[in-house]
Design brief:
Length: 403
């Protein structure tokens, strides 16, 4: 079930001004014919196609058995030319320009029935479909041996050139795929729906004592610390983290707020009333996990619903730094503002991330896992957080807030 590929030759070629568009925009380009032709009646049109396809294949005792799903999203036809054409041999190619506006929503005319989700992951009735915004171009898949799963959303333009020859109609076609970015007319995201959480921790080290902050511990010091000798002080604290549950494609940085709050009542008396120790982030890993759910048909006698899914991890990225070797100070105190570690790292989404969406046969959602490792008084500790469902929204095409 391959995606549609570009196809052009001397009989017909099609080009667009750019590769990527947004629903509501107009695709402009040219259609060209080089091959010689003299005909008094030629028709040329261009069709914008959009479709969502899914496939699952597994191996059993009877061989590989494919199951497929295919749903039309749109089919917009535009007449480009009708009339005589003369292209002598060795002459300049004939060229026609076109402009096709991309709809913003799925074409509900493809679904006149009322199936209430029986044959799809969403209800299929005219009212529901007419409110369904076009998803962006999408491709995800999983393969292991004979087991294959994949789903994609694709858009492409097809030029069709027809003319008569010896009483019959001859047709030449050309195809060019385009990338569609999901539409979002809202301003850039400012509310990331931060999720707060905290972890109670404790470190034990002689470096908590005044004047020992940067001391090299002797072998005896290490033995005392290992066995929890009372002379080695404890520092109790909680790590507070506010992590986003909403992400946006192309956002400059992902916020991640961290601070350390002392719990003096559970800390050793020797350090109570003293300045809190320094804390810094020394390592970070953030992972967005995709969950892709597909619907396919099985069997030749009508529709037999068949569903499958797979997961894949996508590491968050940072500009110009090794996430395993960091030194980012975070506040440690009773009444301190949290530091935006995400901004300090220029933390961002990788290019492999697609916006969350649901269409007839594909559902994509995301979850977040991250690990933050901190150094406090020379001792390493860490926190891990799992957010089962987060949302990824498309890049904004609206003005910034306040404009």
């Amino acid at each position: 079930m391959p995606q549609t590929e570009a196809r052009s030759d001397d009989d017909l070629a099609i080009k667009v001004e750019r590769d990527t568009y947004t629903p509501g925009e107009t695709v402009t380009g040219n259609i060209t014919r080089v091959s010689a032709l003299v005909d008094s009646e030629v028709t040329l049109n261009v069709v914008l196609h959009g479709r969502a396809k899914s496939k699952f294949m597994d191996q059993n005792d009877h061989g590989a058995k494919p199951r497929r799903g295919r749903y039309e999203l749109l089919k917009v036809k535009q007449d480009v030319f009708k009339g005589p054409v003369q292209i002598p041999g060795n002459a300049e190619p004939r060229q026609w320009s076109f402009a096709v506006q991309i709809p913003t929503h799925v074409d509900a005319s493809h679904y006149p029935g009322n199936h209430k989700g029986e044959d799809a992951l969403t209800d299929i009735d005219h009212e529901t479909v007419s409110k369904m915004e076009l998803p962006g171009s999408f491709m995800m898949g999983y393969s292991s041996g004979y087991l294959r799963r994949e789903g994609f959303v694709e858009y492409y333009l097809e030029a069709v050139f027809e003319h008569k020859r010896s009483g019959s109609t001859e047709t030449a076609t050309a195809v060019v795929p385009i990338q569609l970015r999901a539409r979002n007319i809202a301003p850039p995201l400012v509310d990331f729906s931060l999720v707060p959480f905290e972890n109670e921790k404790k470190v034990t080290t002689q470096r908590l004592l005044p004047g020992m902050e940067n001391a090299e511990l002797s072998a005896m010091d290490s033995v005392k610390k290992f066995f929890g000798t009372p002379s080695v002080p404890d520092f109790a604290f909680k790590i507070e983290v506010n992590a986003p549950s909403v992400f946006q494609i192309d956002q400059p940085s992902i916020p991640l707020f961290i601070r350390v709050v002392p719990n003096w009542s559970d800390s050793s008396k020797e350090i109570q009333g003293k300045p809190a120790p320094k804390a810094r982030v020394v390592s970070f890993r953030g992972v967005l996990g995709s969950y892709c759910h597909i619907l396919c048909a099985s069997g030749k006698m009508g529709f037999a619903r068949y569903e499958n899914w797979w997961e894949e991890d996508h590491d968050l990225e940072a500009d110009g730094c090794d996430l395993d070797r960091l030194a980012i100070d975070v506040p440690c105190g009773d009444d301190v503002e949290a530091a935006d570690v995400g901004a300090a790292l220029h933390l961002r989404l990788p290019r492999s991330i697609f916006p969350s969406f649901t269409t007839f046969n594909i559902h994509l959602r995301w979850k977040l896992n991250f690990w933050v490792y901190l150094d406090i008084a020379g001792e390493e500790t860490h926190v891990h957080r799992h957010i089962e469902q987060v949302t990824v929204i498309p890049a904004s095409s609206g003005p910034p807030p306040g404009v």
